[in-house]
Amino acid sequence: MSDQYERLNLIIGNEQLNIIKSKKILIFGVGGVGGNVCDALARSGIMHFGLVDNDDVNITNINRQLIANTNTIGKKKIDVMEEHLKSLNPDIEIKKYDLFYLPDNNDIDFSEYDYVIDAIDTVSAKISIVMECQKLNIPVISALGCGNKFNPLDLCVDDIFNTNTDPLARVLRYELRKRGIKKLKVVYSKELPKKLQQQIINENGKLTPGSTAFVPPVCGIIIASEVFKDLLKS
After folding, report:
1. How far apart (Å, rounded) are the C-alpha atoms in residues 153 and 137?
2. Among 48, 88, 96, 169, which is 20 to 30 Å from 78 by CA?
3. Number of Cβ within a 10 Å radius of residue 122
4. Are residues 183 and 161 in contact, defined by beta-carbon separation less than 8 angstroms?
5. Which of 192, 196, 140, 130 is nearest to 166 (CA)?
6. Cβ(98)–Cβ(76) under 8 Å?
7. Residue 31 in contact with residue 61, Cβ under 8 Å?
8. Are residues 186 and 160 in contact, defined by beta-carbon separation less than 8 angstroms?
9. Which residues are CB-neighbours of 136 under 8 A, at least 6 positions away?
């Protein structure tokens, strides 16, 4: 009898698919990047998710975020993502963490998970995630800056210490090196940031980055592919 994993099974086989189904994934951020990570992994057999996000869906999310539409504005992103993943497979198990993850706000047991995905923007939080994963020997992958970028073909997978052109990567390299971190798999764009046509200051007093429907979602798909391949290797 056919099932939703039939086409994937043709490529990797039932034994490997069962391995994938047993893995638990922790994802920080379910927005433009993380939302597409969740979607692709759920369609690829992942059955256990930890979702970390405290944002609500905003109308400005519609241009790039999988779960954002006129019917979900104002709803919790992790709740909408849970509903979406359950619509793909009702047997998927989801643990939700409704919090803004920071080094001093991190009530999450990383040891429950087989792979960690960092799809958030806050530098201190990204560093904390990497440090926790290193301590527990859990594989981790980080998304770097997708704001003010236009061309998804400039996205690539590399070690953080081989990156260039990305301002977020520059800060992370410096901070991770200080802490003795020698490697970190990342997805980043080689594209130079576009000049903004106007400036919008957000509620935190920072400049709001521009975004497109192309770069963040493709970044998420690339991350999902890397995680999937790493889990098969393991």
Report:
1. 32
2. 169
3. 16
4. yes
5. 192
6. yes
7. yes
8. yes
9. 110, 111
DSSP for 158-181? Answer: EEGGG--S-HHHHHHHHHHHHTT-
Q: Are the C-beta atoms of residues 128 and 189 closer than 8 Å to each other?
A: no
> Residue 105 CB: number of other CB atoms within 10 A?
12
By the 10 Å C-beta count (0-12 exposed, 13-18 middle, 19+ buried), 64 is classed as buried
What count of Cα atoms within 13 Å lies in the side-chain half-sphere of residue 146? 29
CB 120 within 8 A of CB 106: no
Cα Rg of the chain, angstroms: 17
Whose tokens are 């690539």? That residue is 156
DSSP state of 114: S
State how far the Cα of 227 lies from the Cα of 233, in Å rounded to an integer. Answer: 10
pTM over 0.70: yes
pLDDT (tens, 9 = 90+) of the chain, 234 residues, equals: 468 999 999 999 999 999 999 999 999 999 999 999 999 999 999 999 999 999 999 999 999 999 999 999 999 999 999 999 999 999 999 999 999 999 988 889 999 999 999 999 999 999 999 999 999 999 999 999 888 899 999 999 999 999 988 888 999 999 999 999 999 999 999 998 888 888 777 777 777 788 999 999 999 999 999 999 999 998
What order do you get walking across the sheet with 48-52 strand by strand?
A: 93-97, 48-52, 24-28, 115-118, 140-143, 185-189, 155-159
